[in-house]
Amino acid sequence: MFPVEDVIQNSKTSVAFTEIESSLQEMKKNITLILEDRHKNLSSLSAAKRKIESEILAIRQQINNHLDKIQDLFMVEVNSAVENSTQKIQNFLASLKKDQREIDEYIEDVENIKKHATDLQTFLGITVLENKLNETENTFISWSKGDSLAQTAVSYQLNNVLQNINDEINTFGKTVVDIQTCELTLQRRKEGQAQLMKENIGPGSCGCSIENITLKLKTKINTKAANVSGCCILPCGKFVVSNYHPSYLVLFSPKGEIEKTISGIMPNIYDIACIDTDVVAVTSSTENNIKVVSLKTEKTLKTILTCSPCFGIAYSEGSFIVCPEKGQLQEIRLANNKTTNIGSDVVSIYVAALGNKLYSRKRDKKTIVCHNKKGDILWTFTDNTVLNETRGMAVDECGNVFVTDIKSENITVIAYDGTKHQVLLSENDLINSPWPICYSSKLKMLLVANEKDGHAYLYIVNHE
User: Fold this and answer.
1) Pairing state of beta strands 258-263 and 390-395?
2) Closest CA to 368 of 404, 329, 320, 406
3) CB-CB contact of 399 with 208 (8 Å)
4) Under CATH, to which class is 210-462 assigned?
5) Which of 37, 185, 202, 363 is least surrounded, with the fewest CB atoms within 10 Å of its CB?
6) pTM of the prediction?
7) pLDDT tens string 312-349
């Protein structure tokens, strides 16, 4: 026990009081920095809105100018057609009036013959008039058989694109909200050093253990696909399966019923990734592009050119991570098609993404690596007892990686740090040549499809 007088003595000059005072000043500076940063963000949003409006108006003006131009060209063509037809009719009318005057003269000659001519003169006059009448009659017959008396009409055939513009084009574009990592530097109490104000999310942050992961079969589906290559789960609970050859997509209801089949997108579809509720992206092993497809309209919304055909594809935070046939992994921004190479030694044909962490398979088919977007290897997993010829992969919100192995015929989950693994499904669990796999963090579901028999399995994932 210490006397109160001794304890409170020199409190104003104590280390604790000084530290609190310093911390309050740091907090005040942090609040000022945050306020300035938020105001800058507001200003940048307003500037972005003005820029978008300006660019949209410019695009609209270009469209209007183009329509005005093609309209003027079309009207020139219409005017030319009308003028040519009018000129032909006018020429025919002039010729017809000439014939009319000649007939009037013939009638006048007949009257004169009746009044003044002798019988001989009448006989000779009739012969001349008969010849002229025969010529005129032959002219009439040629008119009726030719185009001179044909009815000329001018109409038009509207371009199908213009005719269906209201149905085909129902939006000016899509607003993309890009949430970027905050780079604001704040002061933290006691540490006295700059720290990044960033939410602690990502691999390992949820604290779940792979030993607690269990799967419960929800639906078994016969996709009726002959050569399954990719699959994805949509946020609405529907899911899509792709077939390699012949190439098409199959959309299923949450109950596993086929809703539609979409073909004609591109040949040799290799993989598929979900972008939105009814929008997916597909890759081809033979085409140098990525197709962004609307499942609702069954039309291609966007084509992104690539340096070579791409195999696996993943979509995360507004970017595609693709596995080109040649070279290392690439990140492609959906908004502007900006392409960035990921590292110099990282090559793969399958990939999964979670934030800045990427998970891919080496070309030896037996090694899974975790790396960042710079290409730095964070961990490597190899175990020939479970991995012999890995195919698809998916990652949950904790960073645990689900891997299919077509040779071992199993589904293995690897811990977020690469130190442990667990076989979740084996060939005894209805697995037969498992190939594509997809995980939905929103629905907590895992979808895996077989390559050969076309069967797919939808599982509920329990992390507890």
Assistant:
1) unpaired
2) 404
3) no
4) mainly beta
5) 363
6) 0.58
7) 999 998 999 999 988 789 999 998 899 999 876 677 88
